[in-house]
Write a structure and sequence with these properties.
It comes from Capsella rubella. By secondary structure, this protein is α/β, with parallel strands linked by helices. It has helices at about 15-20, 45-60, 75-85, 100-105, 105-110, 115-120, 145-150, 160-175, 185-195, 205-215, 225-230, 235-245, 250-260, 265, 270-275, 300-315; strands at about 25-30, 35-40, 40-45, 65-70, 135, 155-160, 220-225. The two termini are about 30 Å apart.
C-alpha cells in the first residue's frame, strides 16, 4: 500500500499552523511513517498531531459523554463494539434479526475517533451525535481537551500487555507502511518502542497516567485490561455498565453482547472482511488474532526480554501488573 493511500500517513491536509509547529519539534525517523515528531512528551505522525491540535482547540465535552481510550492496537475495535452494543441494547436489542448496526457497519464508523475525525473532517458535527455521545481517542491524559478533564464525562481506558500491543502494531503497520520504511527491522522497532520513540509512545507514560487517574478519580476514569476482557468478558461488561450508569443489565443480554462482539463474530462479517474505512484502511486490518500472548509467534526470546526489562523498569512502583 502506498504512503498516499491512507489518510493518517499523508500530509496533504496539514494547515500552515501545524507545518510551522512541526518545524520546531524534535523528530526521529520512523517505521510506519518515515518520520514522527514529539509534542507534549509523545510521538505522533504529522496528521494525527494536527488532529490532536484541532481537538484540543475545538472539542467541548458534555457531562454525559463517554470516551474510550487506548494505546494503538490495545483492543480499540473490540472495546468500541462492546460499549456500543451495551449503550444501545434497548434501541438495538441482541440477538437481533440481522439489522444490528454492528452486523453491517465496522465499529470504527459507529464510534468516532476524535483526533482522526478532526484531521480528516475538521468540521464534523459532534453535536449531532446521539446522547450519550460515544467517542474514542488515543490522546494521552495530560493532552486531553480541558473540557474533558473538567467535565463529568466518563473515560474507559483499556490497557494491553505491551508485548502483545507491540506485535499487533507491528503486523498492522506491515500492511500500511510506505515503501521507504517497509523493510524496517523488527529489532530497531523494538528498540524504538522501548525508548518511547514510537507512534503514541512512550507507552508506559500513556498507560500510567490513566492508571493513576483511575485510582485518584474512580468515578470518572475506569481502567480495564484487554486480558480481563478476554478472560471474563461478561464480568467486565457488567463493571463497565455499572461505571457508566447504564442501569440493570440482564445476564442473557450480557451473553448476547459477548457473542455479538466476539472476535470470531466480528471478524467473519462481510463488512469486516471486504470493507474499507473512508481513510482507505481495509477493515480486515483490524482483525488479526486477538489473542493473549500472541507475541510469542513474532518476538524472539531476546526481543521479548528487552520489552520485559522496560516493563519492569517503568512499572515497578506503580502497582500495575501485566498478565501474559
Amino acid at each position: 500500500m502506498s504512503s498516499t493511500s491512507v489518510d493518517y500517513l499523508r500530509d496533504e491536509l496539514l494547515t500552515q499552523e501545524t507545518i510551522d509547529l512541526i518545524s520546531s519539534l524534535p523528530k526521529v525517523k520512523g517505521w510506519l511513517v518515515s518520520e514522527v515528531c514529539q509534542f507534549q512528551g509523545y510521538w505522533y505522525t504529522q496528521a494525527i498531531l494536527q488532529g490532536l491540535l484541532l481537538c484540543q482547540k475545538r472539542f467541548e465535552a458534555k457531562d454525559s459523554d463517554i470516551i474510550l481510550v487506548t494505546n494503538p492496537k490495545s483492543g480499540t475495535t473490540w472495546l468500541k463494539a462492546l460499549v456500543f452494543a451495551l449503550l444501545n441494547r434497548h434501541k438495538f436489542p441482541v440477538p437481533s434479526s440481522g439489522n444490528h448496526p454492528l452486523l453491517v457497519t465496522n465499529p470504527h464508523l459507529l464510534v468516532p475517533f476524535l483526533e482522526g475525525v478532526y484531521y480528516e473532517s475538521p468540521d464534523f458535527d459532534f453535536l449531532g451525535l446521539p446522547t450519550p455521545r460515544l467517542m474514542n481517542t488515543h490522546i494521552p491524559y495530560p493532552s486531553l481537551p480541558e473540557s474533558v478533564k473538567s467535565s463529568s464525562c466518563k473515560i474507559v481506558y483499556c490497557c494491553r500487555n505491551p508485548k502483545d500491543m507491540f506485535v499487533s502494531l507491528w503486523h498492522f503497520g506491515k500492511k500500511l507502511a510506505p515503501k521507504e520504511t517497509a523493510d524496517y527491522p523488527i529489532e530497531k522497532a523494538v528498540e524504538a518502542f522501548c525508548e518511547g520513540k514510537f507512534i503514541g509512545g512512550p507507552f508506559w507514560d500513556h498507560i500510567l497516567e490513566y492508571w493513576y487517574a483511575s485510582r485518584e478519580n474512580p468515578d470518572k476514569v475506569m481502567f480495564v485490561t484487554y486480558e480481563d476482557l478476554k478472560k471474563q468478558t461478561g464480568v467486565e461488561i457488567k463493571r463497565i455498565a455499572e461505571f457508566l450508569g447504564c442501569g440493570f443489565i440482564e445476564e442473557g443480554q450480557v451473553e448476547e453482547i459477548v457473542k455479538l462482539c466476539s472476535f470470531e463474530s466480528l471478524s467473519n462479517l462481510e463488512v469486516n472482511r471486504e470493507g474499507k474505512l473512508p481513510n482507505g484502511i481495509e477493515t480486515k486490518s483490524f482483525f488479526r488474532k486477538g489473542e493473549i500472548g500472541g507475541w510469542r509467534d513474532t518476538l524472539s526470546e531476546s526481543l521479548a526480554a528487552e520489552i520485559d526489562r522496560t516493563i519492569e523498569d517503568k512499572f515497578q512502583d506503580s502497582g500495575l501488573k501485566f498478565s501474559s
